[in-house]
Design brief:
9 helices; 8-stranded parallel beta barrel; Chitinase_insertion_sf; single chain; 822 residues; Jelly Rolls; 4 domains; Glyco_hydro18_cat; mainly beta; TIM Barrel; hydrolase
Length: 822
């Protein structure tokens, strides 16, 4: 019927609870397809009956003839079972196919089979996995061509685009071998993940924008959860006696939290019973709540924050972060503040009030006068523009200090910095002399200060928040607060350590390839920038062929990363190089290859594709490639997760480094890092509301030495960074907790200061809650499910919506869904 186009509804009989039977009794006329979740497959291929009994379902099967009743066979997410069936281990697939016929014969009224096989393997098994589904489909149709086959598929945003590792699944390959397909686009958030929508908009849009291009939309059911999660965020899971923070719940369990029926002290005192109001996430179209949270802030809600912390947004989350460290300075009382203009100079010198630069045999002299004798600090402001412009000699009254820097990863290259010339020096009243002289050509001198107390340190800034806990009204109408005390929980995003940054180039600057920094060794290179963008630094792409390098030919041990985009005309090789070592994508062979000169030193088979001209700027497919050279050992990595592919032994070369390509290629990132030194993205300190101070996040490491000034570590053995630690860092938002704070009271305001010690940490949210328990709760309501059902029908023009699972939903939902029969 035309009125039902795009509005078919599929559910499963997993719950077996009273509400499942109530939904069937009252609203069976709203359901098109039901998967009878009553069958499990073993690794042998044998199918056994388990779960909701078929006998309990027979009254509804006989009553609702319009429903397509499918026998659902599940492996409960066991990879060992999936693998045995796929590989036909000991005849497992053959037995499985015969078992399908057996259960269809046992229940001849069934309309077909629903295959729910999860936890397959990676993309390398996609052909064998597709063949398994082909064999299942052909077996069912050979038995009875009228029998239907539905397949349950993981959410994929592209080939190899599974967030859960289910890359065996290729939608386009499976499309011929099903009558319908239920895409299980729920589970992005789960019990062990950071709190959030179970099915966030960005994920759903990625899945279905892709799915409709490779599958018949009329076959696709849009998967939505009827359930939600309640994540406890007042302590670590192990202290709570749980494996994960989250507890699954139905709509009605969520309703009990909202109405104050439940609490975190076993639904009994001492914690009060407090009704709470839900928020509506208008981007993801889902409700959420904060039970027993008395105040919360997003990162951007800081009353003040200092540079280099910046406010940013991602998927609706407003956070603070810093991308680099700045020098934090203090001078005390400044007695002399002298600019760069010298009193005299000799040799090749470029002078101005703002900067003096020394060339061949260059020297410059400065005089300053003190009104009275005393002990002073003298600081100088310098600039080292490049790795070979890194040395200057400076003297105070003839006492010379040599300023030099040879560390590639040092964070003050190409910027200005202050350094101590003399600390606590006794100077008489009268005139004194500072002289600068050539160490390396091109070093910049910006002036000096004579002051009472100079200090400097690298900083990531800090952010201060004001929290204002207030009493809540409980279910009895009394104004209440925590019985024991408050806890503060910080939601932060940390990352695993990366090579200490030498150069980050995304080509977004106004002058993206200045000749002072870059050299074209061969071919032609240019930068495209999105001139229509209103962004300060618009999206850009490097494009060209030949060799483009940093204008420095003494690189040795480095870590080099590139994000490569292949235009539709591309052929040949493209990648990164240092000296005669070249690591590339060989497009024609679909391999990553490592060469020393013309000698192939190693390779890794993978897959990558071209981007059409229509998408090359707006939606390119990019591929990450990187090498880490340490002496004569070269490691090759690829993918967004920086996966080690192979290691090769090469000559210990030095030379230029950069990007190289046989033919015109595009690149959106070129990153240079140190091969041995790493920068962690993990530690932050907190000044708590009760005045206590705590440090969080720093991991214990071995086989490395620490630089306490810059908070980086250098390996003392040729290891992977992961081998230096036993702890891991979540790739998701994580939670850090204060101790119980009994002194905090409702009705007063309190200050919290977060001080990151590392860059790339996101300050996401702060929660001040009842120390006996508080949480983040997400659930699905009628508005959410109806919204996405309409998107499925009218935006993507799919078959309809499937919902996991019957009996978890708000039963009022069915009033808003169309009857499937007249």
């Amino acid at each position: 019927m035309e009125r039902l186009k795009g509005k078919k509804i599929m559910v499963w009989t997993f719950m077996g609870n009273a509400r499942m039977y109530e939904a069937l009794e009252k609203y069976g006329d709203r359901i098109d397809t039901i998967g009878l979740f009553s069958f499990k497959v073993r690794a042998t291929g044998e199918i056994v009956e388990s779960g909701v009994t078929i006998s309990s379902m027979l009254p509804y099967i006989n009553r609702y003839r319009h429903i397509k009743w499918l026998l659902t066979i599940a492996n409960d997410g066991a990879n060992s079972i999936f693998r045995a069936l796929r590989d036909n281990t000991n005849g497992a697939q053959e037995l499985f196919l015969s078992e399908l016929i057996r259960i269809m014969k046992k229940y001849p009224w069934c309309d077909g089979i629903d295959i729910d096989l999860e936890r397959g393997d990676d993309y390398s098994t996609h052909a064998e996995s597709t063949t398994m589904f082909k064999n299942i489909y052909n077996t069912i149709k050979a038995y009875d061509s009228s029998k239907l086959m539905n397949i349950c598929l993981p959410g994929m945003t592209s080939v190899n685009g599974s967030v859960g590792g289910e890359n065996w699944c290729v939608y386009g390959d499976l499309d011929p071998y099903c009558d319908t397909a239920s895409i299980m686009s729920y589970g992005m958030a789960w019990s062990g993940s950071a709190p959030g929508p179970v099915s966030p908009r960005s994920w759903l849009e990625g899945i279905y924008d892709y799915a409709v291009t490779v599958m018949n939309p009329d076959k696709i059911f849009f998967g939505m959860p009827a359930y939600g999660w309640n994540w406890q965020i007042y302590d670590t899971p192990e202290n709570l006696g749980k494996a994960y923070r989250g507890t699954s719940h139905t709509y009605y369990a969520a309703k009990y939290w909202m109405t104050g029926v439940y609490n975190f002290t076993d639904d009994a005192p001492p914690q009060p019973f407090i009704p709470v109001v839900a928020y509506w996430d208008d981007d993801n179209k889902v409700p959420w709540a904060l039970p027993h949270v008395y105040d919360y802030m997003e990162g951007r809600d800081a009353t003040r924050y200092s540079y280099p912390l910046l406010s940013a947004s991602y998927n609706g989350r407003q956070y603070l972060t810093a991308y680099g460290k700045q020098q934090k300075l203090a001078f005390g009382t400044v007695y002399v503040d002298h600019d760069a203009m010298p009193d005299s100079y000799s040799g090749v010198v470029s002078v101005s009030n703002s900067v003096t630069t020394l060339g061949d045999e260059g020297a410059a002299t400065y005089h300053f006068t003190l009104a009275q004798a005393g002990t002073y600090d003298v600081a100088v402001k310098l600039g080292f523009p490049f790795w070979d412009k890194n040395n200057i000699h400076i003297s105070l009254d003839g006492n010379e200090v040599d300023f030099s820097e040879n560390r590639l990863w040092w964070p003050y290259w190409r910027t200005t910095f202050w350094a101590v010339l003399k600390k606590g020096v006794s100077l008489s009243a009268g005139t004194h002399t500072i002289t600068i002289s050539l160490g390396a050509k091109g070093v910049q001198f910006y002036g000096f200060r004579v002051c009472s107390s100079f200090s400097e340190e690298p900083t990531v800034g800090e952010a201060e928040y004001t929290l204002a806990p207030r009493h809540f009204k409980d279910v009895n109408g009394d104004m209440v607060g925590p019985a024991t005390g408050f806890k503060l929980t910080l939601e932060m995003l940390r990352r695993k350590a990366d090579s200490a940054l030498v150069w980050y180039e995304d080509f977004r600057d106004d002058n993206p390839l200045p000749q002072s920094y870059w050299t074209t060794l061969s071919g032609e290179w240019s930068v495209w920038q999105d001139t229509s963008s209103s962004m300060n630094r618009p999206y850009s792409q490097l494009e060209g062929k030949g060799q483009l390098a940093w204008n420095y030919n003494n690189f040795s041990d480095i870590h080099l990363r590139a994000q490569i985009i292949f235009p539709e005309t591309f052929s040949g090789k493209a990648g990164v190089f240092i000296g005669t070592i070249y690591c590339c994508f060989n497009y024609d062979n679909q391999r990553i290859e490592l060469y020393e000169g013309s000698t192939l030193k190693g390779s890794y088979a993978t897959s990558f594709s071209k981007t059409s001209a229509a998408n090359i700027r707006s939606n390119p497919s990019f591929y990450t490639l990187e090498i880490r050279k340490r002496g004569n050992q070269v490691r090759v990595y690829s993918s967004a997760s920086n996966t080690l592919r192979f290691t090769a032994t090469c000559s210990d070369v030095t030379g230029y480094a950069g990007i190289r390509s046989d033919n015109k290629v595009h690149c959106q990132l070129l990153r240079l890092g140190d091969a041995w030194t790493y920068e962690p993205y993990e530690r932050f300190d907190v000044l708590m509301p009760d005045g206590t101070f705590k440090t969080y996040g720093r991991l214990s490491r071995s086989n490395c030495s620490w630089d306490d000034e810059f908070q980086v570590f250098t390996l003392t053995a040729d290891l992977e960074e992961s081998a230096t630690r036993s702890e891991s860092i979540s790739l998701d938002y994580d939670f850090f907790h204060s101790d119980m704070m009994p002194s905090i009271q409702c009705g007063k305001d309190y200050s919290v200061t977060i001080i990151p010690r590392d860059i790339n940490i996101w300050i996401s949210r702060l929660f001040l809650g009842d120390g006996d328990g508080f949480s983040i709760l997400y659930y699905q309501d009628v508005d959410s499910l109806v919204y996405w059902a309409n998107e499925a029908a009218y935006r993507w023009k799919l078959r309809g919506m499937c919902m996991w699972s019957l009996g978890q939903e708000d039963l009022r939902l069915w009033e808003w869904l169309p009857k499937q029969i007249e």
